[in-house]
Amino acid sequence: MKKRFYPIVFTFIFIIFFIVFYKSLKNSNIYTPRIGINKEIPSFNAKQLNERKEVYSKEFFKKDEFYLINIWSSWCIPCREEHIFLKNLSNEKNLKIVGLNYKDKIKNAKFFLEDLGDPYDIIFLDPNGIIAIEWGAYGVPESYLVKKNMIVKKIIGPLSESSVIEIKRLIK
Amino acid sequence: MASLIGFNALIFGACSSLVIGFFSVINFRNPKKLDKKIIPLTFLQFIFVFVSFLGLIISFIASDFSNETVFNNSHTTKPLFYKISGTWGNHEGSLLLWLLVLTLFIFLFLLKSREQKLEYRLLTLLFQQIIIIGFFVFLLKTSSPFNYIYPIPDEGLGLNPILQDPALAIHPPVLYLGYVGTSIIFSSALSAMSLNYISKEWAKHIKVWVFTSWIFLTLGILLGSIWAYYELGWGGFWFWDPVENVSLMPWFALTTLIHCILVLEKRLLLKSWVIILSITTFTLSMSGTFLVRSGILNSVHTFANDPERGLFILIFLFSLIFLSLFIFFFFHNRETVYQNSFSLLSKETSILINNWFMMYFLSVVLVGTLYPIFLDVISSEKISVGPPFYHKLIVPFLIPFLLAMTIGPKLKWIKSGLSNKINLIIFFIISLSLSIFIVVNLEIKFLLNSILIAFIFYLFFISLSDLLVKRLNNLAQNMAHLGFSLFLLSIIFNSIFSNEVITNLKVGDTFQSEKFKIHFENLEQKKEKNFESFIGKFIIENTTGDTEIMMPELRIYNQPNIATSEAFIKTNIFTDKFMTMNLVQNKEYLNIRYQIKPFMLWIWLSILMIVSGGLISLFKK
Fold this sequence. Notes:
By secondary structure, chain A is an alpha/beta fold. Helix content of chain A is 41%, strand content 22%. Chain A is elongated, with a radius of gyration of 21 Å.
């Protein structure tokens, strides 16, 4: 009995491997982002860029406000291009812009903001990119519009004029 | 013309494979008269493949665009060197290279194994021919390098510019020598097991192949890593990219195999380890090829996304896996342990401990590489596994691993006490205090770091003292272990002391940071044969007023039209200064990245040192 056991187990394992590989061959490996809208936002602990206090997300996000979570980094070139739109949005009264500083050095991040201005109400740090993964980000920049702890809209890549108009419409 | 000869030679080569297979089966019952026919036949097969390869090279040199492979990957304005290296810089050509090495190695194997039993040699040859036939069919059916196109185009499409680089020109051949060497180990282990031939003599004979493959594999990985460092322009040398991981996994298995084969040679122990590792190493090499070439993992190595090719490698790979599983379970008999028992404190134990740690590291990398693929298939969720995963899972376990690596070589076979206990303790105290000194002075907070550094220093001092005191006694092992400790030290100090500035500058701009000032002096334009180059001149002044000139380069290749950034690297013994510049779309400024990276040179040197350990072992009498 024991003699039969191992061969069967190994054969079985490798058959599973075969099936998985076979299926992934047929899959396209081009990212087809599944837009995670109407999904509850992930909870996380994060340090802030400008203050020492650590923030717990469940306490931070209030149910009756709109938040725009923007994943950015000083090394990310499209982030510079979308910055002007963030500044535009920062004038909106009922929208809080939350920055998530992705895999960045604090010094460079601060320099970036000094250079271009700071549209954010608060900036969380994500030095290892773990929080961004939990949000389901595919890269930088990405932005999420959040209301009542739900992701209402997800914008992959830099913000544009049309996405700003849409955000403004959604928060009205 | 050259293509035509090449193609026909390939068909002849495939036929000779069948003839060899036929003769080895016929002769198997009566193996006395084998040598006279088989060795010339394998040589002939090698020559066929060689001619075919030569045909492809000539087509590349002559820019014969009637050949589809040449058309897709070459261009008349490319320098001769890259025309030649372009031969294996693509899917079809690299497979032909793989086949060339396969046939060469089996020929060498037959030459070098004259004193071994004939049945064993024949069976190894048979297994190897199965692999060779698989590659022939693969080449001829799905990826022939000699497809003809008509009408003949005037100009080719060009080689991906980031592959036009000297390190990368030799990276594939060297890596392949390593990969293909593992195929010999695989065939040989399977045949030795089927014939119940595993013995000290066998270990001694196959050891040469294990070491050779290991050396080439290590060098191949090193070359790829150096290339990534200066060409990809991120200033890192290892990104835990799946494509790098697939070359690291066979390396883990092979390194473990090296240690096991030594035990087998000395003590006739760990037979199952040796067999399983031989199978694993080759399987991992093949899986690597599958994962990379089938387009499941996207990278510079993915030459063509053709599912048919992927399917072929997949079926071929799993046939080999099932064949080896069958042979293993059918012929394997458990070791008679009682004769060979060893005590807890012995060389055997420490090698076993290290084996298990190696297997752990291997599994971490395996999980990190395959899990995203599995998750995608099962739940169509996309995740990416990055460096933090590997660091968190690997780094803490380096500590016991290092300890076993330090103490292990000091132990004797079977049973031993620790001699020189005082020495060991003194060295440990020195290492610990040195590490605490460093950690405290640098304000690194982590307890883990200080323990890790202490153990690395420990390995470093012990191997160094052994190297100096014992001289030639166990030079190979000392060199390799010393190299490994140096390697870890360089990596750690590199990551602690690295410094980086990223900024956007126009010509004439100056950037001021706490430690230095970067001034963008001018931008020069030059025209080369196959690209246009922009060389920036930057003057960097540090706090003490020393200035340095850095000249990173941007290249705009004409065929295909791609911009690459060539890092400017100033290397000296202790630090590398690294600068790249990149275009920013629709902006007049350039994105500048300046990094100070200490001990980079030592990372490369220490790997060479590890390799030299292998070389010494190989040539030692």
